[in-house]
Design brief:
The model has no long low-confidence stretch (mean pLDDT about 95). The protein is built from ten helices and nine strands. Helix 3 (about 115-125) packs across helix 7. It folds into three domains: about 1-60, TATA-Binding Protein (2-Layer Sandwich); about 70-230, 2-Layer Sandwich (Nucleotidyltransferase, domain 5), CATH 3.30.420; about 230-275. It has helices at about 10-20, 95-100, 115-125, 135-140, 150-165, 180-190, 210-235, 245-255, 260, 270-275; strands spanning about 1-5, 30-35, 40-45, 50-55, 70-75, 85-90, 130-135, 175, 200. By secondary structure, the chain is an alpha+beta fold. The radius of gyration is 21 Å and the shape is elongated. The chain has a five-stranded mixed beta sheet. A four-stranded antiparallel beta sheet has the order 1-4-3-2, with no helix packed on it. A hairpin with a 3-residue loop joins strand 3 (about 40-45) and strand 4 (about 50-55).
Length: about 280
Amino acid sequence: METYTEKLNDNQIQLLKKKYYNYISDKKIPYALFQIKLEDCTITVYTSKKAVYQGEKASLYLTQPLEEDEAGSDEVGTGDYFGPVTVCAVLVKKEDIAFLKELKVNDSKQINDDQIRQKAPLLIKRLTHSLLILDNIKYNQIHTTNNMNQIKAKLHNQAYLHLQKKAGSLPERCIVDQFAPKDLYYRYLQNEPHIINNLTFETKAESKYLSVACASMIARYAFLCAWDKMEEHYQCTIPKGAGAEVDRFAAAFVNKYGYEELSKIAKMHFKNTAKLK
């Protein structure tokens, strides 16, 4: 059980309340403005503007996080009919934090693809990382026996194994941008020969942790580079996502190249394929 205390200003209090609005308890606490009940942490904010964090992972929820080494992983491409799935795990050391904040990596939600192309190469050059790119041919083969979340779990685990080998060891705090509950994630890995344990799973982690934000940016950059090569090969602009524009493009592509060629650049289990038939 960890316990931390910090003094907040009015803006920090409002941001905390907004961020965890759905987790605010109805229980009345003496001298408290509100209490947030999370799975692994309870946050009590008092009228004195003091916040007390208690729980197994309390340090992860501090408004001003402890500046320590951490690793994070994220994936890109799982919602796009075309293009690969890219997964990256990144190690961020204490001495990297000032550089990353100056680069405004902590604002990753606001970074567009043009900025990704500018900033991600700087991250790749500076940070120890592991990048995996699963192309569509291999993806379609694997998907015959693994669902999307199984594939992601195995890729995240492999990325961390590679990162551990590169870095020599992993820090105490390793965060996965959560796509499945913790127990299910490890169930997906039960037949894997080597498994990285004691990971922290959080939704929207790329907006909370520098390491996950960096992983997200590098994975996105790798996805964009693969996309560039795909468009260059077929000499056309290929729409992202999985909507109506993608359906129209896929129909034209099949008419020109056929289904076998489509399987080289598309995730064939998506409903977009069924619509073609």
